[in-house]
Amino acid sequence: MLKSSLTLIAGSSKTTQALQEQLEQLLGDYVYIKSHAADEGIPQSLEDTIILYSSASVYDQTKGMYSVNAEKIIVGKRTVHHEYIDKLLRIPEDSSVLVVNDNDDATINLIESLYQLGINHIQFIPFRKGGLFYDDVRIAVSPGETHLCPSYIKEVIDIGVRLFDMTTILEVVECCGLSKDISSKISERYISNIIELQRKLLHAERDAKQMSEHIQNVLGTVDDGILVVNQEGRITVFNERLTALFHIVAQDVVNEYVEHVMSRRDITDFIMNGKDESKFFDIDGVDVVIFRLQMMQENTIVATFKSVHQAFEIEKTAQREMRNKGFHTKYGFEDIIGEHIVMKERKRIAKKLALSEHPILIQGETGTGKELFAHAIHEHSLRKNGPFLAVNCSALTESLLESELFGYEEGTFTGAQKGGKKGLFELADNGTIFLDEIGDISLTVQSHLLRVLQEGEIRRIGGVRIIPVNVRVITATNKDLQGKIRAGSFKVDLFYRLNVLNLCIPPLIERRADIPILIKHFITKSGKWVKIEQDVLEYFMQYEWPGNIRELKSTIDYMLTICEGNIVTKGDLPSMLGQEGGSVKSEYPVCGSILEMKEHVFILEVIKQCNEKGKAASRDLLSSKSKESDFALSPQQIRRRLDILESEGFVVKGRGRAGTKITDAGIEYLYFLKSKYAVYC
Predict the structure, then answer these.
(1) Is 352's pLDDT higher than 80?
(2) Is the whole model's pTM more than 0.90, yes or no?
C-alpha cells in the first residue's frame, strides 16, 4: 500500500516540531509527513495531497502566500497535552488564572479546551495584549508562550504546545483512505493517551479525597473546636469537638448557613461580624473563648473554640516564652513556701528591701532559694513593670560574661554579630539585673561592674561611647566573700557596693518545721495523689539536707517517680541520700501514747497562737482551752507537760504570770507531731 503524503503548516517552529512529533507517533507508519513553520517561511508551492493547518488563525494568515495543489485541506483542532494536566490540578480552588496565548482566538479556544477537560475548579481570564492590568491575578497559564506573560505575574505555568484532538486525527485518517484495521490501531494509540489523562484525573480526585479525609482526621484530634465559614456564610468545616459542644452532627451542617445551624444569635453575630479577636461565651454551662480570624484572601472566617482553661494555659505558655528570654520575673513572694518564724521574718525584711533602690546582696547555701527571693523582690519593687534579667556568672567564661553583661561593638572579635550587640545592663535599663554566683567572677569583670555601680554607665567592649543605664542590681552567692577579700580574689570596694542591703536565707535545717509544708507543696504541684508513710516523714525531719530545698525537691521527685501505687515508703528513698554529708539527726523524743502526742500538739499549738499575737500563754489559759478539746487538763497537769517540753528545749517558761513561749525547735517539733498525728488519727 502506497503511503499518503501530508504537509503540516503551523505558526511557529516550536509548535511545528511538537505537532509533527504527535503525527509521527500516531500516523508515521502509514503517512509521509512534512512540515513548515510560518515564522520560518513556506515554499511557494505545496504539492502534497493533504495540507493540515495547526489552527484556523494560521490558515487565515498563510493561505494567500503560496499555491496549493492538495486534494484535501484540513484545519485542525487542538487540545491540552495530557502530561501537563497535573500542573493545572494543583492550582488552588477558586483561583483566578490568566490564560496567555499568541492571539485572542487561540486564547479563547484554549480556555474552552480546559473547561472541556474538566479543569473547572479555577476561573480562567483571557489575556489581551495592551489590555487591562490584572493586578489581582497571581497565576498565569500559557501553551509555550510564556514570554508574553506580564512581568508582574508571580507564577507562570507552561502547559506546553497544544496537540491535535481526536476529531482532527480521525479526519486525517479518513482523507488518507486508511483501512479500518489501521484506523483502529491509530485510534487505540490516541485513546491510550486519553486513558492516561483520565488516570491522572482519577489519581488527583483520589488524592484530593484522601487529603480531605486526612484533614478531617487531623481536625478530629484537635482539642479545639474549629468552625470555618465561607463568604456566603455557609459552614465548610465543623470538627468533632464542636459536635460534642453543640450536640450537632458535622455531616448535617456542612454547607448549611451558620445562622441556621447555631441557635445562639450572639455567637453567630460575633463569628460573622465581630470586631474583637476573641470573646467569652457560656455554652450550656461550659466556659468557652471563641477566637475569630478573618482570612481576607480566602474570603473565609475561621472560628476556634477553646475552653477557658485552654486559653489560660496558652496565655501561661506565652508568658513562659517571654520569661525564658529573661525579661520577666517568674516568682513573687507568694511562691516562697514556708511558715517558719525565720522565713516569715526574711520575707518581711525582703519586702522592705524591695521598696528601696539600693543594691542587694543575697547570701545563703546552695538550694535555699536565693534566686526565688531575687525575682520576688523585683516583682514587689517600684520597677516591677520594667525588665528583669538574670545571669549565672559561674556558667560563663570571663570574656563571654563581659560581652553578655556589657555588650560589644561590630567587629570587636571574630563572630561578632553585625551592628554589635546590647549587653544585659542595657537591656535591663529601668529594671533589675540579677547576678547569681557573684563570688565566681574574675577581677577584670569586677572592675567593670564596679564602674557601673559607681557611675551608672557602661561602655561596650570595643566601643568608646558611654551609655548611661538605670539598673537596680541584685546579687547572690553561697561563697564567703569576706574570706575571698582576705585572699585577694574579691575587691573590697565592690563588696561594699553590692552589700548595701543584705539578706541571708536560712538553710533548711534551721527551718525544719517547713519540711512537711514543702513536701505537701511539691506533691501538689506534681499533680499526683500520694501518701507519705510516717517513717519517711520522720526521716525527712531528722535528715540534715545539705542541698537544702533543691535536694528535698529532687528527693520528692525521685520518690514520686518510682513509688508503687499511691503510697511512698522508706524503700523509695534515693540510695545516695545521706551519703553527701547529710547525716541523720537523733530522733525526737517518742511520746508514750497517742493521747500524750495529742496533748503536746494541743499545748504547743495554743502557745504558738498566743505568741503570734504578742502574748505569752499561762497555765490557766492552757487548762481552760483544754476543756474545749477532747481532754481536760488541770493547771498542775499542764505544768508537768510544760516541764517535759522545756527540758527538750521546745518551750521557755516565764516566772510567775509571765507565761510560756515556744522556741524555734518547739515549732519544728510541733510540725513533726502534726505530721505524725495526721497519719495515726
Answers:
(1) yes
(2) no
